């Protein structure tokens, strides 16, 4: 019947999902974030270099948290604040 394919389907789905899960864990251990940036094109490589120059480490998101009276957090990403005024 149709249910005889369920174990085979489960094995195929798990076999296809394992490399993606392993890459997330490996990137977290190696880089400190769950993703790697693609630098295949020249534009992407230039964006990577810009993020390195402006913010330091391009893989970690630099967040400043401000605590208000109602225990709500407002997060401000450091982006344009790192660029010096000329």
Q: How would you sum up the global shape?
A: elongated
Q: Termini separation (Å)?
A: 73 Å
Tally of alpha and pi helices: 2
Number of domains: 1
Pfam families: MWFE
Transmembrane segments: 6-27
Organism: Zophobas morio
InterPro entries: NADH_Ub_cplx-1_asu_su-1
Describe the protein in words:
- This protein is α+β, with helices and mostly antiparallel strands and 86 residues long.
- The chain has one domain.
- Helix content is 45%, strand content 12%.
- The protein has helices spanning 6-30, 42-55, and strands spanning 63-67, 73-77.
- A two-stranded antiparallel sheet has the order 1-2.
- The chain is elongated and about 75 Å long.
- 0% of the residues are buried.
- The chain crosses the membrane at residues 6-27.
What structural keywords apply?
NADH dehydrogenase [ubiquinone] 1 alpha subcomplex subunit 1, 2 strands, membrane, 86 residues, alpha+beta
Q: How would you summarize the topology of this molecule?
A:
Layout: H1 6-30, H2 42-55, E1 63-67, E2 73-77
């Amino acid at each position: 019947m149709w249910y005889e394919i369920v174990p085979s389907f489960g094995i195929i789905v798990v076999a296809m999902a394992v490399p993606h899960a392993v890459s997330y864990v490996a990137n977290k251990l190696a880089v400190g974030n769950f993703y790697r940036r693609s630098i295949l094109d020249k534009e992407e490589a230039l964006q990577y270099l810009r993020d390195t120059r402006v913010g330091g480490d391009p893989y970690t998101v630099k967040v400043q948290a401000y605590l208000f009276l109602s225990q709500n957090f407002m997060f401000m990403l450091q982006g344009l604040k790192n660029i010096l005024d000329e």
